[in-house]
Structure formats: structure tokens, C-alpha cells
Hints:
This protein is mostly helical and 164 residues long. The chain has 7 helices and no strands. The protein has a domain of 51 residues.
Amino acid sequence: xxxxxxxxxxxxxxxxPPSNKPLVEIAQEEGISEATLYNWRxxxxxxxxxxxxxxxxxxxxCAADKFSAVLESAAMNEAELSRFCREKGLYPEQLQQxxxxxxxxxxxxxxxxxxxxxxxxxxxxRIKALESELRRKEKAxxxxxxLLVLRKKAQAIWGEPExx
Length: 164
């Protein structure tokens, strides 16, 4: 049993700002299963429509919806942006923050490469210091071993009693 397109669109509109009703509430009001509503929202997203997850505020929107809002509003002038924000229940500051997050996400590779480079430099310095300490300890151990060998030879030659 399929639902008419008009009813489906009316129900999808209830999911959008400014009403942003929870799917549970819409399911109870309309007598439609939650699974059907989730499927409708998923299909609308697949069509490229902005369908937020949040029950009340844009702060709970998924990353894909935030990105879609940034893309939709990218070429808008100030008046169009204000109208868009009112329709979607957003503040222009939120869109600006999301845009900055998107821009930083694209620089992630560069930032991670710099971080890895700094970490590698630190690791190389630590390795160098550890190798230096190891060489110093190996020299001290070799010197101690040589002294013990000489002591035993001296005892064998002169017959000195062993100190215990």
C-alpha cells in the first residue's frame, strides 16, 4: 500500500525547520510507521534534499546535512542567505562555522602531514639520544669486563688471593 505523493511531501515538511518534529511524534500523529518515515527521509536525502536528523536544533544535524546547507547557501547574497536561514531554522553564524569546518576538513591532509613530520622529528631526536646512551653504557660495560679479565689474569700470574 503506497502513500500519495502529496501526503508524503506534507509529512516530510514536518521533519524540516521550523517545526522539526521528531519522527516518533510524526509517526503517532500520521499513523505511519517510524521505519517508513526513516525510509522517506533517506530517499529524500538521496535526491539531494536537506533533511536534518535533529528533533529540535541544527546543532544535532548530521555532517551530510550541514555540508548540504553550506553548499546550498554558498552562492547566496545576504538577503537570500537570511531567507534561507529563516526557512531552515538556522543562524548565519552556524552556516559560517560549518563552512569553516568544511574548509578545514579539506586541509586535513596537510595538517596531518605537518603533525606527522613534527612527531617523526621528535622520535628521531629521542632515538639519537637513546643510541648515544647505549653506546656510553656499552663502553662502560666493555671497560668493566676488561678490568675483570685483567684482574683474573693478575691473580693467575701472581697468585693473589681473591677478594670476596
